[in-house]
Design a protein that fits this description.
It comes from Pajaroellobacter abortibovis. This protein has about 120 residues and is mainly α. It contains 6 helices and no strands. It has a single domain, classed as Muramoyl-pentapeptide Carboxypeptidase, domain 1. The protein starts with a helix and ends in a 6-residue tail after the last helix.
Amino acid sequence: MFGHADIAPGWKWDPGPLFHWKRLYDHGIGAWSDEQEVPSLIAGKSPQQLIRGEERLRSFQEHLKQWEYLLQVTGKLDEQTEHVVNAFHMHFLGEENTIPPEETKAVLHALIRKYPTERT
């Protein structure tokens, strides 16, 4: 299940960060990460492993595309990436944020692992 912000990031912002995506998931609708997996994906990461640098950001963008967000893989924290990161944050973390912290990457990886797909 997607919101307008997921489909048109930067153009549409609804339903926003306060929408109860987790509550829908608890009732069998939509996707949600396994919350106990996210801390284990973050644990032990050094500052060098955080999303910094063109190659790490490129990999992060590729994973966002795998999760069906529409964006060009540039390896840069450009405007389109900020919009997609903000949409992802509003949907899966319940907040607005355009900078992809380690938690964002962990939630995205947990979702991809939980819901594998052949799409890229």
